[in-house]
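Dear support,

We are seeing what looks like truncated structure output for some complexes. This example has two components. We would appreciate it if you could run it in full and send us the complete token output so we can diff it against ours.
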Amino acid sequence: MGMTVVQKILARATGRSMVAIGDVVEPAVDLAMSHENAALVINQFLEVYQGTGLEARPWDPTKIAIIFDHRVPAESSKTATNQKKVREFVAAQGIAKFHDIRGDEGGICHQVLPENGYVRPGQVVVGTDSHTTSHGALGAFAFGIGATEMASVWALGCAMNVEVPGTIKVEVDGSLSPFVTPKDLILQVVGKLGAGGATFHVLEFHGEAIRAMPTSGRLTLCNMSVEAGATSGIVPADEETLRYLRQEAGIEEDLEQLTPDPDAPYERVVTLDASKLEPQVACPHTVDNVRPVSSVAGTKVHQVVIGSCTNGRLDDIAIAARLLKGRKVARGTRMLVFPASGRIYQQAVAAGYVSDLMQAGAVVMNAGCGPCLGVHQGALGDGEVALSTTNRNFKGRMGNPASEVYLCSPAVAAASALTGVITDPRNGGGAPHE
Amino acid sequence: MSKARVVLALGDDVSTDQIYPGRYMATVLPTETPQFAFADLAAFNALLKSGGVGAGSVVVAGRNFGCGSSREQAVSALKGHELIIVAKSFARIFLQNAVNLGLRLVEAPDVAASEGDDLAIGLTELTNLTTGRRFGIKPLPPARQAVTEAGGLIAYTRSRLVGRGAAA
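Here is the complete output from our reference environment:
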């Protein structure tokens, strides 16, 4: 019996020739990421050492990454004080992979890690954020954990109680039509599997549409795999992975490509035809409440949000800018754009996208998580509706349980900003093809 | 066998945003998070804060309880009130966090109970004393037992560290 990619990664990370699905293992961790919640991790980490007589030092500071993104710049004195404590810890422990609130190297953790080459194929990556699944886009096994578990990783250097997960193979043939994006694809997958349909499983993506997809789109797919309950999503590394890591992340060292065995044990295969896909929208208040855009077209929208770890990358901003250039955001609708990193922000400025968006009436905010989780900027009023390229629409997610959030692609979001109602980008609000 | 009253009954896919809204995430310490448990369910939150919910009371829910964010506050807030969560299934990270912090979870795939019902919770079976119906309990993955027996992950990791020091 062969092994899936994740089995191979876990076998190596535990020093074994093979692991079976269901085995409980303690894989060595290659990268341990936290954001502002590092404040809680530090608290728990210090507690672990209490009364032991041992000095509280992380197992390997070079494998720890801390990125401020959830509430940047700080929205309150409490957050600012937490961030200050984290800075002090980072300095004391010599943690070099630290990204503070900066326009040059700051941004959302799930963009900062890939663009700096911190994630490599075959690694085990853990993060105190559920969307750590994103990094499977680079062929790593990446999953979210809680803060206390991260304290344990910092102390011991391994993740504990990891059941080798079964894998669901998602095979996507055909190619995506214009204005249909990886976001539409993953929304359809989540709708198909259901919010808990992949719990304790990995989604492994294959097929013609995946091979043709740039890493930015693969990050979107893996990012939202957790919305089906998956432990992680993964795209086995290929030529595109190597291209991204060399050209965009600047890695020069040798890289390897782990691929699944031909007889890898998949529990289930989900097959999709990308060419038949139309834009999708996740309706309030669950991410698996997915419908084609045509069935909700015309719904009034008060706030359009483009950004986040799901869809704040350059190609996301580019498609929005192309649709909005020379046109105007509808009165009565506000449009907020949050690039995923300072680097992407600068690229968007250089390409003229920021100017196009601002002239159309959009507000371009600093790189960060922005309004996605309702803690910082862009809260909704009672009875208001948001259409957002973020990843969650749970009740209260954008700071107000009396509001509604619909999720969509950047193309749907931009087309809808022009009309003020949910709009299919392929007609009406859409600009002519270039 | 413990007897417990259901104080809140919820449906499927209860997210950590509902258990602990994102706007309170700057509050991280387990001593401070319980005040924001189910903050958007204002009446229940007020009841919790008034001390009107006894330790060992039950929140019952459907499938995929605790989905969404990995925020540990969602667990420490419930643990602070010593609630027991009975659900048809749990999201992975929430389950792991609950084991790590010692929040008691009971996975009963077919459970049916309403607010005000009394439950008798055993090791392998749960009885709704109000309706007379019995439901099987799915045990937690065995690998979690060591953490539970140690009294949570902090104590477990501490013992591993000390053991490692002794071995060296």
